[in-house]
Amino acid sequence: MSIFPKISLRLEVEKYLKEGFMNKEVVSTFGKQEAERKFETLLNHLSHPPSFTTVRVNTHLASVQHVKDLLFDELQKQFNGLSVPILQHPDLQDVLLIPVIGPRKNIKKQHCEAVVGAQCGNAVLRGAHVYVPGIVSASKLMKAGDVISVYSDIKGKCKKGAKEFDGTKVFLGNGISELSRKEIFSGLPELKYVIKCLEEICILFGGSRKIKTIYLRSSVDSSITPQLTADVDMPKTEFIHAELDYIPDSWNSFHVATVWVFGSSSTSGVEGVALCKRCPTGHSSAILLPWYPDTGASGVFPEWALCVLLLWQPLGQLQVPSWNLPSAVVTHVLDPQPGEKILDLCAAPGGKTTHIAALMHDQGEVIALDKISNKVEKIKQNALLLGLNSIKAFCFDGTKALKLNTVKDAEGKPPFLPESFDRILLDAPCSGMGQRPNMVCSWTLKEVTSYQPLQRKLFTVAVELLKPGGVLVYSTCTITLAENEEQVAWALRTFPYLQLQPQEPQIGGEGMMGAGLSLEQLKQLQRFDPSVVPLRDTDIDSLRDARIEDMIWLANKDCIGFFIAKFIKCKST
Q1: Are 289 and 273 in contact (CB under 8 A)?
Q2: Cα–Cα distance between 417 and 407 in angstroms, integer?
Q3: Please, what is the angle between helix 451-465 and helix 485-494, to 10°?
């Protein structure tokens, strides 16, 4: 059932999307009323989380069964002995699925409140904790230890530091405040390095006292204590080292924490993940691995940051604590083979890059490009920590990756000669309108429609770099017709030597009408549309009675909005 309002969009954006979903082909086939119902259902689904948490296992380091056993033990602790099923996907053998329980209707709202930004609120519903930067408002008398209700400011109208807010807000759940209102809004100490554990400064709700949200998601985070198995020898150029006078008793030998690093001219910190080592002599040290949050994720500690623990057990066997199912599907559709040379043209944040290398058994060459240097460094760190030697990441603009002269580059750096790659993944920059949960998108129509030209530039470069007989996979995490089916129609017109290919595995639905593609061509596409299934209430009792086949089917359908097209290049250009 629907418990949140539909995603809030600018009127011009909603009108634009509606025109795409109610185009002439769709209306003539399904009727105006049904087309409009499906569109409204989609907007409603976008504000709610998917029905399953997806975990991709790094099979380069561990077996799926071993990680499944570790997760089972952890979930037993999180859910007080309740048996929550962990399913291995039948078509994606390295993917595990954990059902999301909710919505829970017995959570009593408290008089004491905290209001967080909309993007922070979205992340909370996906299992993240709340940190000080994400908090907009807190009740006047809020003290550490208070049970409080957490709300999302979906309209962005709450003033920072407000003591109360009566505007539009959405209830997310309850938690226990680790800080008082005064501590939250007092600012951070004027120190070069400020390192405090999650429970003491960085986090409002966390540790064992996590937010009790309306949707109960498994949390594969620092609650699984890593066990040190080897000394750390990391390149000093990639990390920041700090000496500590004090490490709180609650920290383990190696502890995940958010760190603020202040420079002489900086007023805002650089957040990162700290590995802090306690020495018997009292001398302590910390290593800070910088992380680079996605746009709008302010105040949220990202679950993927736990990849820094991959040198240790048991988290060393997980690639990323939480993924979206279609993100795993697209790499399997690419079907990388050992010994091949593969290009990930827009690689950040790097999850698909490492997945490609793992599927190739780390045999071959995976080139990852991104034009933002911080994100490239993160890809390198992930590859290092996962022990994947086939990955080479470069800070380079993908639109300029084609070498215009024919002089061979002996170093193997971009730009590259034409027809250099066996397979290319173009997970294109997009409007991201398929992400869930997303209660609000403040983008203008100009911003939403700005991606199509860039996608075409990147696609043109990808085609030139692909060998004859090579495979090109194009994907987005958006729902717009212009960025998906219209791009496929344009590609087939522009590059007649490209052919659409059937996809394996075929988990999503067929493409959407309206771009002039034939029914046969639409069947060769994959569009993940969460509106095809109704929003459901899930509790422990219903999970006990559910068939595995039905749960897998639901996980395949009730995910984020996503699109995949697979092409083969039939001849040389």
Answers
A1: yes
A2: 8
A3: 40
Indicate where the chain has its CATH 3.40.50.150 domain(s).
Answer: 1-104+324-572
Mean pLDDT of 479-497: 98
Strands (E) in 353-410, as ranges, are: 365-370, 391-395
- In DSSP terms, which residues pair with 194 in a beta bridge? 260
End-to-end CA distance of the chain: 52
Superfamily of domain 1-104+324-572: Vaccinia Virus protein VP39 (3.40.50.150)
Q: Which residue has the tokens 């680079």?
A: 292
Rg value, the chain, Cα: 24
Which of the residues 197, 477, 559, 570 is marked catalytic? 477
Distance between CA atoms of residues 434 and 437, nearest Å: 9
For residue 87, the cross-strand partners are 97
Please work out, in degrees rounded to the nearest 5, the angle formed at the alpha carbon of residue 332 by the alpha carbons of 328 and 333. 115
**pTM given for the model:** 0.81
Q: Are residues 511 and 527 in contact, defined by beta-carbon separation less than 8 angstroms? A: yes
Side chain identity at residue 283, one-letter code: H
**Segment holding 144, helix H or strand E:** none
Whether the Cβ atoms of residue 392 and residue 416 lie closer than 8 Å to each other: no
The 3-state DSSP composition of the chain as helix, strand, coil percent (nearest 5) reads 30, 25, 45
Distance CA 276, CA 81 (A): 32
pLDDT digits (tens, 9 = 90+) for 391-414: 999 999 999 999 988 776 657 899
Residue with tokens 């594969």: 220
Distance CA 112, CA 437 (A): 25
Looking at the chain, which residues constitute the CATH 2.30.130.10 domain(s)?
113-197
pLDDT in tens, 272-303: 444 444 444 343 344 333 333 333 333 332 33
Residue 237: phi and psi, rounded to 5, are: -70, -20
Q: What is the DSSP letter of 137?
A: E
> Can you tell me the mean pLDDT for 135-148?
89
245/538 Cα distance (integer angstroms): 48
Angle at 533 (CA atoms; ends 530, 539), nearest 5 degrees: 105
DSSP letter string over 491-528?
HHHH-TTEEE---SS--SBPPPSSSS--HHHHHTSEEE
Q: Which residues are annotated as a binding site?
A: 346-352, 370, 397, 427
| 477 has catalytic annotation | yes
Phi/psi of residue 552, nearest 5 degrees: -65, -45
Q: Which fold has domain 113-197?
A: 2.30.130
Element (H or E) spanning 26, and its range?
helix 24-30
Q: How far apart are CA 294 and CA 405, in angstroms?
A: 36
Beta-bridged to residue 442, according to DSSP, are: none
- DSSP designation for 196: -
Of 237, 472, 214, the closest CA to residue 343 belongs to 472
In three-state form (DSSP H/G/I as H, E/B as E, the rest C), the secondary structure along 42-107 is HHHHHCCCCCEEEEEECCCCCCHHHHHHHHHHHHHHHCCCCCCCCEECCCCCCEEEEECEECCCCC
Token pair 């997945």 in the structure block, residue: 355
Please compute the mean of the pLDDT values over residues 350-369 and round it to a whole number.
96
> Is the separation of the CB atoms in 345 and 424 below 8 Å?
yes
